Amino acid sequence: MRKRKVYKVIEVKSLLDKTPKHEFEAFLHEQSEDGWELHSLVPQNDENGTYCNVAIFVREIEENDEDEQEE
To answer: What is the pTM of this model?
Structure first.
């Protein structure tokens, strides 16, 4: 068995006031329960400022090596 990382990207609301922050915190807990860890949060900007954020999550999964499958 070998481990590899898998990623997923999700768009989240701007986190400028308390309500979205609390929602995002709850969202992070949900993702954590499914084995996902927040890798990074990238703001998406335009001429008016940040309109959303992109959350990148990562987790490790185990896979069979090709050598093990041949045995």
So the answer is: 0.75
- CA distances 47 to 8, 17, 21, 51, Å, are 27, 20, 23, 10
Copy the structure tokens of residue 2.
Answer: 């070998």
Do residues 3 and 61 make contact, with C-beta atoms less than 8 angstroms apart?
Answer: yes
Tell me the chain's radius of gyration from C-alpha atoms: 17
Cα–Cα distances (Å) from 5 to 2, 20, 37, 51, in that order, read 10, 28, 11, 29
Cα 10 to Cα 20: distance, rounded to the nearest angstrom? 15
User: What string of pLDDT tens digits covers the 71 residues of the chain?
Assistant: 899 999 999 998 777 777 788 888 999 999 999 999 999 999 888 888 777 889 999 999 998 876 555 54
